[in-house]
Amino acid sequence: MARCRVLLVIVVAIACLLACGRTAPEGGLARLRTAGVLRWGGDIQGGEPYVYDDPSSPGRLIGFEVRLADAIAKELGLRAEFVQNDWSNLVPSLERGTFDIVMNGLEVTDARVGRVLFTRPYYAFAERLMARKDDTSIEPALTALKGKKVGTLANSLAFEMLRGTAETVIYAGVEEPYADLVSGRTEAVLLDDVIATRYGAPKPELRVVGDLREGYYAIAVRPSEPDVAAAIDDAIAKIAARGELQRILEDCGLWNERQPKLVGWSAADQAKMLGAPPAPPSLGRGHVVLFLKGAGVTLLVSTLAMALAMPLGLLLSLARLFGRPALSRAASMYIELYRGTPVLLQLYLLYYGLAPVLKLGALPAAVIGLGMNYAAYEAEVYRAGIQAVPKAQLESALALGMSTRLALRRVVLPQALRHAIPNVTNDFIALLKDSSLVSVITVVELTKQMTITAVDVRGWLGPGLLCAGLYFAMSYPLGVIARRLEKKLEGERAAEAAT
Amino acid sequence: MISVENVTKAFDTRNVLDGVNVRFARGKVSSLVGPSGGGKSTLLRCINGLERFDSGRIEVAGLELGPSKRPRPTRAERAVLRAIRLKAGMVFQHYGLFSHMSALENVMEAPIHVRGLAPAEARQRAQLLLDQVGLSHRRDAFPRELSGGEQQRVAIARALAMDPEALLLDEPTSALDPERKLEVVRVLHDLAKQGATMIIVTHEAAILRDIADHAVVLRDGRVVAEGKPAEIL
Q: I want to staple A313 with a disulfide (CB 3.0 to 4.6 A). Which of A50, A375, A376, B154 is the partner?
């Protein structure tokens, strides 16, 4: 009986999988009606006031977009269901079919207009420029930002505006740009007023310089489903007409003089908002140059980090194996701590956490963060190498009157380091790839360059392949060298074992 | 020249050396024999300071070493240990040649870096020593290219290069096949004829019969018999 039930569960599960995998032949709206669910994509990391965890009951989502999604779904006779997705990948995920629509502070930009179908806007925002109170050199004009370090989010409207004028510093979160502005790492921050009001304005050191232009948040729909876009347009029109939109925005403290025009939004307004987007640039020489620059940053960060990790790792392994008990314990603790916590967290703590006391530049922080993390791994590689040297050799050296230090330097380490070379090379390859993590502390390396370009040219395949090709070109020769060294050492070890 | 007085040493609860009293005379070849686990190798390693002991005292050519429970020697102890090691060279069962150095470099290493000998002089002496153990033609070979017997002979030359007053050999032939054993025994025989002071832990009949002047039997950490090898065994 129990077996029958298990079988039934499996059959049902397979049927479900097949049903999910099948693409609906009918229109998007009919598909939604069949499912009874409107799945909308967003990123709760964007925080208040968009979509975020209710602090009084964790696990429950609140925010003005949650209420709007519920209202729209109700209007369509559906149930709204939130799907969490990394913000920078919302559009590709929409194209893949991970959810039906995107609604998460997605600004109407030229790059996006060519790629998705935008409904009528549900919010009108301003691009707000903020600077430090004591810095009067920042003026409310885009041209005045030339050569200044300005923080913003990747692939945002502000990012597009700043291109070619300011030296853009790219962040992944909304809190960090203002923290870095306060600490002096940047000179200004250009972001939506919704973000500026909540994350920038409360900081007493900062001032609002001015609003540079207006923009809109709108819902993105797949271009193949215009009927869904039309239905949502109708729904928003009704919600706005009966004053519900105003109520939602007022409740969240978002209603202002820019919003009333959303109620009587016309086809002409929509056409003006979308504009005539220029044809997407194809992946060209300019991009390749940017990619090579990104690859240069990747190589620089990795090489310098490894140059730090190797000597530090050696000291750690020696301290662990031969140091006084207290020193040995400290080294062990360092190794376990750095190996037991995510390098991403270490980078955050080093760059943002320590900022009040130690204001490291992004590149030095990246090198030190990765270097200190990899030192823990190199320490273990060296330890294995040291322990692979037969104990009789160390004892022979001591018996010949050498001090432990001399014996290590002349006898043990030359051999241990040779044993360690293949593993160190392999770690360097891993580091090349791990270095993409430093984009969280605003270093634009190869992977970050790829994600920026992918949005630019509206496709991931070309930039992705180019990026992969560059990583491969850097790591493959190292891999070949590592394998060759490994083979050579293996031969020597076999010969030693034979005697 | 080497005296061991009332030395005890325990690993966990097992007494490896249980009140050992023994003297080794200058210019004589002594052999330590007895069942395995009887404490022979441990005694040898205590004399050289590679192992510390729990109580008693050991004197090597006028240098005195006391007991210690701590794994790390103090600064003063380190100086005594190094002085003792310069007086008593050591040869191990598994040779312990430095894998990344040629035979000649193995022999030159300590004279240059411990004694401060000029490299040219160290090289010359190393060549003489390799010649003495019959390996002058193998001086550029690396340990992995040498047979076990050859490696052990290089190890003996390496120990001799420091001009020790005594040589401690820990089962120098037991890892070798019979033919290779003979090469090493021949070298030891030559050294004995030249009047070298040696303490050899061994089971090798040829060494006991032809080389050793004196035999000490250790069992369960105690000296149970001592005398001329022929009488003892």
A: A375
Residue burial A218-256, b: 16+ Cβ < 10 Å; e: rest: bbbbbeebebbbebbbebbbebbeeebbbebbeebebbe
> Of 3.90.1150.10, 3.30.1330.60, 1.20.1250.20, 3.40.50.300, which CATH number belongs to B2-95+158-232?
3.40.50.300
Q: In what order do the strands lie in the sheet with A117-132?
A: A79-84, A37-42, A101-102, A206-221, A117-132, A188-192, A149-153, A167-171
Is residue A373 in a domain?
yes
Which residues of chain B are within 8 Å of residue A492 when distances are taken between CB atoms? 99, 144
* Chain B residue with minimum CA distance to A498: B144
Place of tokens 């090898």: B229
Closest residue to A392, CB basis, from B78, B96, B114 = B96
Q: Are residues A344 and A455 in the same domain?
A: yes
pTM, entire model: 0.79
Helices (H) and strands (E) in chain B, counts: 8, 10
Query: What 3-state class would DSSP assign to B21?
Result: strand
Tell me how crowded residue A324 is: count the other CB atoms within 10 A of its CB: 10
Half-sphere exposure of A155 (CA within 13 A, CB side): 23
CA B227 to CA A10: how far, in whole Å? 84
SS3 A184: coil
The interface pTM score, or ipTM, of the predicted complex is 0.94
Say if CB B210 and CB B40 are below 8 A apart.
no
A275 within domain boundaries = no
With beta carbons less than 8 A apart as the criterion, state whether A392 and B95 touch.
Answer: yes
The answer on A133 and A96 residing in a single domain is no
**CA of residue A135 relative to chain centroid, distance:** 30
Chain B residue numbers with beta carbons less than 8 Å from the beta carbon of A324 are 72
Q: What digits encode the pLDDT tens for the residues A184-242?
A: 999 999 999 999 999 999 999 999 999 999 999 999 999 999 999 999 999 999 999 99
CATH number of A321's domain: 1.10.3720.10
For chain A, 499 residues long, the average pLDDT of each consecutive 10-residue run is 56 54 63 92 89 87 94 94 90 90 93 89 95 91 91 89 90 90 93 93 94 94 93 94 93 92 90 81 84 93 96 96 93 96 93 87 94 96 94 94 93 91 91 91 89 80 92 91 83 69
Of B92, B114, B159, the CB nearest to A402: B114
Asked if B162 lies within 8 A of A401 by C-beta distance, the reply is: yes
Q: Dump pLDDT digits (tens) for B173-194.
A: 988 888 888 889 999 999 999 9
Closest CA to A298 of A462, A444, A171: A444
The answer to whether B86 and B164 have CB atoms below 8 angstroms apart is: yes
Q: CA dist B16 to A61, A469, B12, B202, B215, Å?
A: 71, 64, 10, 18, 19
Q: Cα–Cα distances in Å, from B218 out to A115, A322, A439, B54?
A: 89, 33, 69, 18
Question: Chain A residues with CB-CB distance to B under 8 A?
Answer: 324, 389-390, 392-393, 395-403, 406, 410-411, 414-415, 418, 492, 495-496, 498-499
Which residue in A216, A198, A38 sits closest to A120, CA to CA? A216
The HSE-up count of residue A497 (CA atoms within 13 Å, CB side) is 7
Handedness of CA A414, A419, A424, A425 (dihedral sign): positive
Please judge whether A400 and B148 are an interchain contact, meaning their C-beta atoms are less than 8 angstroms apart. no
- Residue A157 identity (one-letter amino acid): L
Residue B66 vs residues A41, B4, B26, B56, B70: alpha-carbon distances, Å:
76, 11, 22, 7, 12
Record: contact A396-B78, CB cut-off 8 A: no
Same domain, A469 and A375: yes
Number of domains in chain A: 3
Which residue from B213, B156, B147 is spatially nearest to B178, judged by alpha carbons? B147
Asked whether B176 and B203 are in contact (CB, 8 A), the reply is no
Evaluate whether residue A13 is within a structural domain: no
